[in-house]
Amino acid sequence: xxxTSSLWWIRVPVIFFLIFGTMEYFIDSxxxxxxxxxxxxxxxxxxxxxxxxxxxxILSSIETVMFQTLSEEAKERYLSSKSKKWEWTWxxxxxxxxxxxxxxxxxxEIVLDHNYDGIRELDNKLPPWWVYMFYASIVFAIIYMLRFxxxxxxxxxxxxxxxxxxxxxxxxxxxxxxxxxxDVNTVELLVDTSDITAGEKIFQSxxxxxxxxxxxxxxxxxxxxxxxxxxxxxxxVFHTISEGGRDGKGMIAWKQxxxxxxxxxxASYILTVINGKTAANPxxxxxxxxxxxxxxxxxxxxxxSDTTSVVMN
Length: 313
Ligand code: HEC
Prior knowledge:
The protein is mostly helical. Helices cover 53% and strands 4% of the residues. Among the domains are: 1-68, no CATH class; 193-299, Cytochrome Bc1 Complex, Chain D, domain 2. The longest helix has 30 residues, at 40-69. It is elongated, with a radius of gyration of 40 Å.
């Protein structure tokens, strides 16, 4: 039997993409599509595809089997009914209805009985699509008025505040993951080995000329001790690197050369690796001992005088 009007090639993809769309809509997978975020869904969609094809195959074989049971005359009838050109009659009829226009042959029914130099007027009805939209807008207006002017559901100011608050949360979230966005206010000490090794590379290629490879100092101050001219701690060190030292001292602002994340990396390298190391040839301390104002205050234990201890100087 020749299956002239089978539409499986429309049905299968349409249903497939409907299921795919529904899946993407309902699975919350962040900013990645679910099909990438959760590889199991690829398997699921493959199963769906196989299932759809199987259903089509089963349906068409049922049709074939049923067809074989028909009498010759019924076969003829069946085939001719199937081969009729497929038309979307429902859609066409609805379209006509919504236009509400009379076919030209029927215009005689609605022509008005005046005639100006051969120009005549038709008493057409308002097109239903327009009338329905008009009714819908009335319904909308009533609901809107009750909701916002009688029951005061919410107003623009509240809506604005909610949206700003939501956006602020999103920005915070984004800043947490986007390292490239750090600035002096958000910079944190990086501890990942990858960041520290990256920081070391940056230090070796940009800073050793003045600070020495071990941070002992030369033209620039000693970075291994606890004394800081421009303040210690990640925020101050980041700020010094980014904006440079005092005028005329020789420490340029590195923000033109290094990316924010690179400055955070080299600052973290200085603070976690260089600082506290014993340099081969340390420069004398400059600046003040830096105490982290946010450090937890430890109770200083009472000094116990130990008479047996030997003071070595
Ligand atoms: C041309 C020499 C030179 C280079 C190159 C240089 N610095 Fe400096 N650096 C200095 C000088 C000089 C100072 C002291 C600035 C001041 O006294 O205001 C300084 C200060 C600093 C401080 C502050 C120290 C303190 O005691 O407060 C840090 C941190 C620092 N440099 C990091 C770096 C880093 C990181 C690099 C490489 C990206 C770098 N420097 C490259 C000369 C240099």
